[in-house]
Amino acid sequence: MSASAPGYLLNAESSYPSKSIVVLGASGSVGSTTLSFLRSHNGSQEEKIILSGVSVHSSIDELRRILNEFSPQAAAISDSSVFDERADSLRADFPSCRFFRGEDGLVEMIGFCRSSGADTVLTAVVGASGIRATVESLNLNFKVALANKETMVTAGPAIENLLLAKRNEAPGDRPVIMPVDSEHNAVFQTLFAVKPEHISRVILTASGGPFRDRSLETILKATRKEVLNHPTWNMGPKITVDSAGMINKGLEVIEARFLFSIEYDMLDVLIHRNSLVHGMVELKDGGYLMCASTPNMVFPIAHSLFYPDAVPARHKEAETPDAWKPIDFEPVSRHRFPGYALCLQAARAGGTGPAIFNAANEIAVEFFLEDKIKFSEIPRLIDSVLQDMPVEQGSELGLFLEADFRARSLARSALKTIRGV
Question: What are the domain boundaries of the chain?
Fold first, then answer.
């Protein structure tokens, strides 16, 4: 693929159907859907996908169910204190499984599974904690089914630099990235269906969350219950909060910038209430290519695991278009969603701007879920950190990890300022 073509760094032309996978974040929404797909996938012996390794943060009961059902050879528990409390019992009950401790353990497990024949890592860890594991997977030339947007948001230039260096290696020795987020998977499918010179604009869609019809005044008064009541998707609490303020979509714009090597001027977002069209490519003649399906994560997950082959069977979740609700689109109001506007501002600042934004947002959402701040105070806390922490330019991974660390510390100390105490 030409170095000027959108998505060329993904190395998709070297992709292959997955045979043995490691699922990071198995107890979350994407991880659970992945395991559900593996459970229901009854293809031929050649099409079967083995679960080689798995990670959870602290959900030991769920980990036990996974170990009993799939018998992976490796498991990581990223919460070190939970590992220390429960690992001995797990080792006694599952002697054929090797257990790994903490975030360092995620990285170690990836290397162990690679040496044991695994070919794919599906990264569904929520937050910046998935960065090191994703980088290790790329360094070991895995196919990475990427559902951890924070890797690209926090360390986009460093990942881009890594992938550029990998382009100098033989095609079979390069890592492959397959986007798993529904919007980016849809963009991938449409981008690769048209010649690069025909592309004018790439559009991500957004449901608009629970406040798409609310005034700014009522959004500012939103309760925790209202924030967590997403109208379309069943997701974890962190992503649901991000979606309520449209911050999740701003993060996805940054992810798209680095995944597809597309400048921000070519990226846009439209609200699409029924979440049937997940992404679009606008052509230079004014036509559009759209990728649509029932709003269920099994579609992008299975596509990423089988590409370039077709998914061998129709998903039971699929509906025919005559059963779909109306398809319409509307622009995003930056006035009503100030967090979204701040995210795009940080994106265009470049360098460590997105890393600072993402870290501050993760702490702000953590505070909100702990009832320490109001929903309306999330963008205020983020803005405070953005104002106080200068953006640095560069492409070394350490620069972005340091910015992430410093921004988290600054966000925690900004709580009193935000609350005016």
Answer: 14-180
